[in-house]
Amino acid sequence: MSAAGPFLFALQSELGGSIPFERFMEEALYNPAFGYYSTQIRSVGRHGDFSTMATLDHSLARRIATWIQKENIRDVIEIGAGSGQLAHSILNSLGWWKRQGIRYHIVEISQPLQEVQKKLMQGRRVTWHESLPSALEQVRGTAHIFSNELVDAFPCRVFELADEGWQELHVRIAGGRIEEILKPAALPDSTIFKYDFAKGQRIEVHESYSRWLEMWAPYWKAGAMLTIDYGDTMPALHHRRRLGSVRGYAGHQRLTGQDIYQAPGRCDLTADVNFSDLEKWGLTLGWRTLTHSTLDKFIGTGLDARFQAASSAFRAILQYPNKAS
Fold it and tell me: Is the dihedral of CA 93, 308, 317, 118 positive or negative?
């Protein structure tokens, strides 16, 4: 299990014999010693383990630049900028004159990626932050915020419908291998549990993202937030997907089943996003949704035909805080 083995084994003992999948995913992605985003990742795109829409086509950057120009706001905050290619393309699309009136901020917790971004953005006026609250404090709570493929990088809880009802997925180290077990658990706040499923169905809930929203929401006073990611609304999200959507990526290879456990920290882990939950959690915070559509509809004209089908698997949601005018 690579260098993560001793840590996970000790964590398992500390937690009473098993590790909730959400905690396993958190350590595999963000542990300071071996986490994928902390130590392993070097780039995104052709030379990385996976590509994003921004590394494949410039139409998304042009659309976001148009959104920024239309809103006419001073501070823009991008969360989780990956390789920095999207930010670079957005600033190019804004043009020299408009760039002078924009203060561009990037919130990036991955040091390897932050180094890649700074190298690409040399000569641009960009400010980096370790957290969204620190960025919002600097702009006095007024900013447009956006992210592309951020939510899916948050650790998710995984549940399976058993004879006893919904059970939470845990992992257990035994004989040098990781096995899956199910345990009873209190259910999180999610739209998913009001729908009927057949026994054996697995689903994911990005509860850690909800907690993260609650943490920084009080700092945000005005502006708009654009969230782009792959996923769907309920009940379409899990239509004909009995095993759920958790998977890994390494060297542009898709990993599923037991393969995602082979080397914790050596591959990206992800799951599709429930956009019905994003709307619900925003309403709980007092936010309102202005638009919500598939990404191809958000981009509109100008999207390369090669990416039409792929972009329809992504969604874009635009939300405002309760104090917005």
Answer: negative
Residue with tokens 């996923």: 231
Q: Which two tokens stand for residue 176?
A: 């040098």
Q: pLDDT 10s digit of each residue in the chain, 325 long?
A: 567 889 999 999 999 999 999 999 999 999 999 999 888 765 554 444 545 555 556 888 999 999 998 887 899 999 999 889 999 999 999 988 888 899 999 999 988 899 999 999 998 999 999 999 999 999 999 999 999 999 999 999 999 999 999 999 999 998 878 999 999 999 999 999 999 999 999 999 999 999 999 999 999 999 999 999 999 999 999 998 999 999 999 877 899 999 999 889 888 999 999 999 999 999 999 999 999 999 989 988 766 666 666 778 899 999 999 754 4
* Sole residue written with tokens 């760039």: 99
In a domain, 220, yes or no: yes
Q: Determine, yes or no, domain membership for 325.
A: no
Question: CATH no. for residue 71?
Answer: 3.40.50.12710
Q: Which two three-digit tokens encode residue 237?
A: 């999200």
Residue range of the domain that includes 210: 4-320
User: Using the 8-state DSSP alphabet, how is residue 142 labeled?
Assistant: B
Please give the torsion angle defined by the CA atoms of residues 36, 41, 45 and 47, in that order, rounded to the nearest 10 degrees.
-130
292/315 Cα distance (integer angstroms) = 7
d(CA 56, CA 46): 9
